[in-house]
Write a structure and sequence with these properties.
Blueprint (H helix, E strand, L loop, with lengths): L10 H21 L17 H29 L2 H25 L3 H16 L8 H4 L9 H7 L7 E4 L3 E4 H9 L6 H4 L2 H21 L1 H9 L4 H16 L27
Antiparallel strand pairs: 1-2
Helix pairs in contact: 1-7, 2-9, 3-4, 3-9, 6-7
Length: 268
């Protein structure tokens, strides 16, 4: 008699984690609070620079040994049309998570736009391989839980560099953790479908590394202080993206009169 393969459900664990999210957020934010008496320099709040630099070197080693070689091989082996389809597919899979954050932010127009895009791309767009929403003139309302916290009035906190994930702020670090559980799509997919979802997203990360390879290489390997430059670029870009929601002044890093994003802020 054949026996069915037992596959444990992740739903109970997922429900427990979701219930623990508010406590986890509070613990992470309080644990990462800046030391008493710390004064931010040049609009950069980085009281844990020594630890962050260690993580930065670890991330560079991972990039040098794994991610950069994989991205170069991916670029050479995969046709451009296939790369676009993978990127579209991965983006469509993350759209329900954006809808959740739109709703949490009270952005009902953005939620409607993203929901419509998801419906069009998942049906006419062959499960998201073709971005029909963009063809129809519906621009993606890209958002995340870090932005949700910003809308709720949470300050950006100190700068942190996360293992494998790179630059962040305390607020965005919490947001990235919460976003692991805000996408309702995994609950609707089977185990094999979820495995495919995760695999496609990993491949998309490799594709992104290849697509922006020259820029990333110039920052990580061609600069005098890759840590300081990565930090400055991230903070300027994120603050501009959130409309100046950080605790310091910001510039559009893409404007002609903005500060040079590759300039070392500590250079004399």
């Amino acid at each position: 008699m054949s026996q069915a393969t037992y596959r444990p459900s992740a739903q109970p664990v997922r429900r427990l984690v979701v219930r623990m999210l508010p406590l986890c957020c509070a613990v992470i934010l309080s644990a990462c609070a800046a030391p008493e008496g710390y004064v931010a320099r040049d609009g950069i709040n980085d009281p844990y620079e020594a630890q962050n630099r260690n993580v930065h070197e670890f991330n560079k080693a991972i990039d040098r040994g794994v991610l950069r070689p994989l991205s170069r091989g991916y670029n050479q082996a995969v046709p451009d049309e296939m790369k676009v389809m993978v990127n579209n597919f991965a983006g469509n899979l993350s759209t329900p998570q954006m809808v959740v954050n739109n709703l949490l932010q009270g952005d009902f127009e953005g939620a409607l736009t993203n929901t419509t895009r998801f419906f069009l791309n998942s049906t006419i767009g062959l499960a998201g391989l073709v971005d029909v929403g963009e063809i129809a003139g519906l621009q993606e309302n890209d958002t995340d839980f870090g932005e949700t916290l910003h809308v709720w009035g949470v300050g950006e906190g100190a700068y942190v560099e996360m293992p494998f994930r790179g630059p962040a702020t305390q607020r965005d670090a919490v947001g990235r953790f919460v976003d692991l559980f805000t996408n309702p799509l995994p609950e609707a997919l089977s185990g094999d479908q979820n495995d495919l979802r995760v695999g496609v997203q990993v491949v998309d990360v490799i594709g992104d590394r290849g697509r922006f390879g020259d820029t990333i290489d110039s920052v990580l390997y061609d600069s005098a202080d890759s840590y300081a430059q990565s930090r400055l670029i991230y903070l300027q870009s994120r603050r501009f993206e959130l409309g100046g929601g950080g605790d310091a002044d910001y510039d559009d890093p893409y404007a002609l009169d903005a500060a040079d994003p590759y300039e070392d802020p500590y250079e004399e």
